[in-house]
Design goal:
single chain; 147 residues; alpha+beta; Glutaredoxin; 4-stranded mixed sheet; 6 helices; 4 strands; globular; Thioredoxin-like_sf
Length: 147
């Protein structure tokens, strides 16, 4: 009986620990490298503006430079609907917790620029009107003003 209870407690703690894992890792990395965190809520297989955001901004070289040049740490909290695109139960739970904390209105796409402590510096509701280069420049400008 003690073994079963111990096993159950270990599972509960393991799931609870993993729940905020990506954000906690991002905060640590952002603190160490003086980066910002870009958190994007998307519906990758059903939300047309989300798909456009990824194609026209996030998958571009201008945006990828933000990551390689240590300007941002990028987190995508995805909420796919198709069975073939479903995430692991742990990742679903983590995304749900991120949404509870940062996206209580359930907006898609919804993009947040956070400091290394998780404080919101800027948010974009829906598809940003700027192109990838302008979007990236805005993030760089916000980072410069944080110094």
């Amino acid at each position: 009986m003690k073994t079963i209870i111990s096993a159950l407690l270990m599972v509960v703690f393991a799931v609870g620990f993993h729940a905020q894992n990506r954000l906690e890792i991002a905060k640590k990395e952002a603190t160490e490298n003086k980066e910002l965190i870009l958190l994007n809520f998307s519906g990758s297989d059903w939300c047309i503006p989300c798909i456009k955001l990824h194609k026209n901004i996030i998958e571009t070289e201008d945006f990828k430079k933000l990551e390689t040049e240590k300007v941002i740490v990028y987190i995508n909290a995805d909420f796919p609907r198709n069975k073939k695109n479903q995430l692991s139960p742990e990742l679903k739970k983590e995304n749900a917790l991120l949404a509870d904390h940062y996206n209580s209105k359930g907006l898609f796409p919804y993009t947040l620029l956070l400091n290394s402590e998780g404080k919101i510096l800027k948010s974009w509701e829906g598809l940003p009107s700027e192109n990838a280069l302008a979007f990236s420049k805005e993030i760089r400008s916000i980072k410069e003003n944080q110094k």
